[in-house]
Each structure stands twice: as C-alpha cells, then as structure tokens.
Amino acid sequence: MEHQRLGDSGLTISKVVYGNWLTHGETVSGDAALACVEAALDAGIDTFDTADVYAMGAAETLLGKAIQGIRRESLTIASKVCLPTGPGPNDRGLSRKHIMESCHASLRRLGTDYLDLYQAHRFDDDTPLDETLIALDDLVRQGKVRYLGVSEWTAAQIEAALTVVAELGLRTRFIANQPQYNMLWRVIEPEVLPLCQRAGIGQLVFQPLAQGVLSGKYQPGQPPPAGSRAAGTGRAPTFIRRVLGDVLLERVQRLRPIAEEAGVSMAQLAVAWTLHRPGVSGTIIGASRPEQVRENAGAAEVRLDDALIEAIDAVLDNLVDRDPTKTARMMAVEPAWMGAPAG
Q1: Does 77 reside within a domain?
Q2: Does residue 216 form part of some domain?
Q3: Of the candidates 37, 31, 104, 105, the residue with the CA atom closest to the CA atom of residue 75
Q4: Which residue intervals define the domain NADP-dependent oxidoreductase in the entry (predicted)?
Q5: Are strands 12-14 and 3-5 parallel, antiparallel or unpaired?
Q6: Could you give the CA distance from residue 23 to residue 20 in angstroms, rounded to a whole number?
Q7: In 3D, which of 20, 81, 90 has the Cα closest to residue 48?
Q8: Which of 3, 168, 245, 318 is the residue whose CA sits 20 to 30 A from 78?
Q9: Structural domains in the chain (count)
Q10: Euclidean distance between the first and final Cα of the chain, in Å?
Q11: Domain with 48 in it: what CATH number?
C-alpha cells in the first residue's frame, strides 16, 4: 500500500482509506465487519474513516472493536461531527456544545483518547463560524484531535473559514476536505479543488465507485444482482437506486474494454482514477466482504496513463456532472445523465 501526505500537512495516510458508511452497523456487523477491517489491515490500509452519525454510533463502536489491541500510533483514525445524532435540538450542528459532546462520545465508542482527523461533516448556517472554529481549535489544544477537516463544504464556506482562522489567530487550520468524487460526479473541480490546492488542503474523497455503479455489476435492463447493496435492506438500496438508469449503465459497460486494456477490474479502474486526480490525497472505500477490500486496495498500485484517462472521459462525456452548485448534495440530485442519450 502506498502512502502520501494529506494536503501539505505532515500527516501521512494510506492512499486507499477504509470507511464504514452504510456498512458497519447497517448492512455489515459482527464477524463480517471485523473480517473487512482485518482485510484492510492485511492490505496495508492503516487509515480509517467513520462518523458519529454512521448507524447512530454503531459504526464507530464496531471499528473500535476491530482495531482493539492494534498499536494506536500505527493507525490514522478520522471521524466527523454535525449531522443529527439524536432527537434534541443540540444533537446536531457545529455548536460548541455539540462538537465537544460528540467528540467525547466518538472517543468512547472508538476506544481511543484522540482522533487523528476530525471533520465538520457539513456546514452549519445556524452557528457562528467563529464559535465552530474556536471549539475545534480547543480540541486540538486539548490533545483530543490532531488535525481538522471538513466534508462537503462549498468553496465559499471553506474560504470563509480560512479567513476567520487567520483573523482569530488560531493555531490549527483545515488540512482535509472530504467530498463525493468519482468519474461521474466532479462538482468539486470548478471551485472547491482549485481553492483547496492553493490552501494546501488535500482531498479525501468518498464514493469512488458511485455507489457501486462504476464497478460494472449493475447491468442495464436487469434487476440488481443478488447480494449487491441495491438488492439489500437498510438505507443503502435507497441511495443506490436513485442513481441507477439504463442510459448510465449502458455507458458504464463501455468502460469494461478500457479496464481490460489496463489489466484491472472496473472497480480498480474507478478507484485508481480518483487517485490520479490532482489534489486527491486518498480515496475512501467501503466494503461488505473482505474480497472487496482486497480488490479495491489493489487500485493504489494501478498506473493510468494520459491516453487511458482521456479514453474514460470520451466514454462518459456528457454524463459527467461538474456543476459546482451541487456541492454538498448527493449524486442523485438531477444528475447530468438524466435525459442524456445512450449513444
């Protein structure tokens, strides 16, 4: 497994990161979850991403159980705060109260006394930005958090935070942005990515397979295969089925010869594509089975030349969404392929 710096910070992460959104505590639990984490560790993945809201804390608890007994300093653990974790008005957002309480709860569930990376899961319009940034800075000063980041913030929101950090003279700044990013969903490219590159903020991207669509396992005109997330239970099928469509699936199948030419699976092609994009420090993969972890981890060693990347762009072309106004929204929101011809 190859490693690289997260942005221009001194923190080194594995290029492929193991995440447990929509898996641990939802579609994967118990021994299956432990087996996936073990497979990640065996593949050289030492960076793990989770959040307080994933399965309402169960994802953090499972991850904490899976890494118990492993030398803490050998791991990089990231979590997040903002989205609702309870029924109360203070069980959400980026207020000082919720940030402090959520961080302490995450530490308990994960069985650790610090987080390597703590990320604001969304922007909070209802909390003064200086309150949020001071609270996060205090966690760093207290030794409970090592580095800070955001997830799905717009360029304007990130820039505003950078301004407040400078004005208040805070010691810590954001080193990571965690956006949705893949061959089809590239809304960070016009605004977020250039700003982050100027500010030294690395991209820790999620959904490199576009909910499994880019793996090629969903075929046009056919029901989801048995055992796939789209055919399962829980929230995962809802997320996935919103992006399925014959126009898109037919075009994705045209990527298969490109993957074969590169000598990789379609899933590896999709993950490797994100790792070859400017500004991307790491790519988060999710998995329901250990073999999926091993396959996707192999993408870190895949080399894609310019001609191959151009071939991918030529296939997808008008299906690619680059609308920056869709930042912080899911791929299913008016995707570019809606209404596009199959040819």
Answers
A1: yes
A2: no
A3: 37
A4: 16-316
A5: antiparallel
A6: 5
A7: 20
A8: 168
A9: 1
A10: 38
A11: 3.20.20.100
20 is a domain residue: yes
Q: What is the pLDDT along the chain (343 residues), one digit of tens a residue?
A: 999 999 999 999 999 999 988 777 777 778 888 999 999 999 999 999 999 999 999 999 999 999 999 999 999 999 999 999 999 999 999 999 999 999 999 999 999 999 999 999 999 999 999 999 999 999 999 999 999 999 999 999 999 999 999 999 998 889 999 999 999 999 999 999 999 999 999 999 999 999 889 999 888 776 666 665 654 555 555 555 556 678 889 999 999 999 999 999 999 999 999 999 999 999 999 988 999 999 999 999 999 999 999 999 999 988 999 999 999 876 655 555 544 554 5
Could you tell me the two tokens for 124?
């909070």
- Residue 327 gets which letter from DSSP? T
The catalytic residue positions are 54
Q: Tokens 């899911």 — which residue?
A: 330
Q: Per this entry, what is the length of the chain?
A: 343
CA distance 164 to 159: 9
Helices (H), the chain: 30-42, 58-66, 96-110, 129-141, 155-168, 192-199, 236-241, 246-253, 256-262, 266-275, 290-297, 306-316
Q: Say how far apart CA 255 and CA 264 lie, in whole Å.
A: 11
